[in-house]
Design a protein that fits this description.
The chain is an alpha/beta fold. It folds into two domains: 1-43; 50-161, Glutaredoxin, CATH 3.40.30.10. The protein has helices at residues 2-40, 82-95, 110-115, 126-135, and strands spanning 72-78, 100-105, 121-124, 142-146, 152-156. The protein has a five-stranded mixed beta sheet with strand order 3-2-1-4-5, with helices on both faces. α3 (110-115) links the parallel β2 (100-105) and β3. The longest helix has 39 residues, at 2-40.
């Protein structure tokens, strides 16, 4: 009889523990479902305040030139990014005024590279992925101005946030 009582107490304890674990998993699933719904609805989520300022001072590999050169404009785009498609025309307009490069991540990149056709330097594929990781790009699109030493002097997630190129003297 004592054995039966001990077995029932252990079974009840195990059931309580399993109930707590199931409730914890359900709560976590609800959190993820809510977050997924917000992302699907177009909410920016944890990047709501990302402005690219943390990139200032970092080097962009392969972008060092003449130290007296005007800042170069570099745009980081992703193939599946709707905002990237919206920001491509202002980027291209600004690219015609200064030395610009566009880096496209993802594949197939045909549509995005077609949008960025007027940009002097277009980097696609593995080289673009490597550059974006080296710089620390987290959000697409991201636009940076790089000085003659290859150091980022300004960064933004919207072309309207970057000042226009200085007029040639």
């Amino acid at each position: 009889m004592a054995f039966l009582v001990v077995a029932l107490v252990l079974l009840a304890g195990l059931c309580c523990l399993l109930l707590v674990l199931v409730l914890a998993v359900l709560r976590r699933l609800r959190e993820h479902e809510t977050r997924f719904e917000r992302l699907s609805a177009g909410a920016v989520d944890e990047f709501a305040y990302y402005d690219g300022a943390e990139l200032v001072g970092r080097r962009v590999p392969g972008f060092a030139g003449h130290p007296d050169a005007a800042p170069r404009l570099v745009g980081f785009f992703s193939v599946g990014c709707g905002t990237c498609h919206e920001q491509a025309p202002p980027f291209i307009a600004s690219a015609s005024e200064r030395d610009a490069s566009a880096i496209v991540l993802g594949s197939p990149a045909d549509e995005m590279t077609g949008l960025l056709e007027g940009v002097p330097r277009l980097i696609v594929g593995e080289e673009g992925d490597t550059l974006a990781k080296a710089v620390g790009i987290k959000v697409f699109p991201t636009f940076v101005e790089v000085d003659g030493d290859g150091v980022i002097v300004r960064a933004a997630v919207d072309m309207a946030e970057l000042p226009a190129a200085a007029p040639a003297l």
